[in-house]
Write a structure and sequence with these properties.
mainly alpha, flat, 72% helix, 268 residues
């Protein structure tokens, strides 16, 4: 069995763990059952390991020119330098979703590690929400956007990355934007946890303040990188063109800025 066959297995295992964590985190939090809560929080780490394994396998396939994988064949070529190949992992929908899941796994494990003891009444429900979000993306990768689909025969070379994406900003702009986008999952998860647990004081607001600032920072950096990239690549004669892609990136920034100001007022 090819090592890359472990990719789908990792995604399936991660999906099962994410569903388990989403259900048991809520049930354990409602029942105040330490064993259920502990297993639910443990599933967060297990899911993260599965996603990391899948992402590592896909990256290795790109770097090793494994064109028997359809996704590699359509987004890489032998002529591309290694760092372009590494960035090409998120050059299409399948890899972008896997990167999104990897970043979400990182945020989820950080939340459990940082807040597991400080907010014991909120974290089980917050982890359940984050695992539910993870389950959605893993389900899409398992049933629809499958990054490990194999071809019947391996072509001698791939078609390569879209020429517009063969830019050094490709290595930094999408990850930065995703760190911003996905980062807002943490405030959302704690807000839902506060509603479910009935703890509607300032505890959840205190918990999300730094996470909100981190998400806003990366979203800001990502937008600045994107505007500069569009300027030098497309030659619009300006840094902002108000096209749908740019608008979809700036609207969360405006909403995030308003949200940060609102929680500052609420804390006072």
């Amino acid at each position: 069995m090819s090592a890359y066959a472990l990719g789908p297995l990792a995604l399936w295992t991660g999906l099962a763990l994410a569903i388990y964590g989403a259900v048991m985190g809520h049930v354990g939090g409602r029942r105040n059952d330490p064993r259920l809560v502990g297993s639910a929080l443990g599933s967060v780490y297990g899911t993260a390991l599965c996603v990391l394994l899948a992402y590592g396998l896909l990256t290795a396939a790109f770097l090793a020119d494994r064109f028997q994988l359809a996704y590699v064949a359509t987004h890489a070529s032998r002529a591309m330098p290694p760092w372009y190949k590494a960035a090409a992992v998120w050059g299409g929908m399948e890899g972008s979703m896997l990167l999104w899941a990897l970043i979400l796994a990182g945020y989820s494990t950080a939340v459990v590690w940082a807040h597991g003891r400080r907010q014991p009444h909120l974290v089980p429900h917050a982890a359940a929400v984050l695992q539910a979000i993870m389950a959605f993306f893993l389900a899409v990768m398992v049933f629809s956007a499958r990054p490990f689909v194999s071809l019947d025969f391996a072509p001698a070379d791939g078609t390569g990355l879209n020429p517009l994406l063969q830019n050094h900003w490709m290595a930094a702009h999408p990850p930065s934007l995703y760190l911003g986008y996905v980062g807002w999952s943490v405030p959302f998860a704690f807000a839902m946890a506060a509603l479910v647990s009935g703890r509607l004081g300032t505890e959840w607001i205190t918990a999300i303040r730094k996470w909100s600032l981190v998400a806003f920072l990366f979203l800001t950096i990502g937008n600045l990188m994107g505007s500069h990239w569009a300027y030098i690549e497309l030659g619009w004669g300006g840094f902002w063109g108000w096209d749908p892609v740019e608008n979809s990136a700036i609207m969360p920034w405006f909403i995030g800025a308003a949200f940060i100001h609102s929680i500052m007022i609420q804390e006072k």
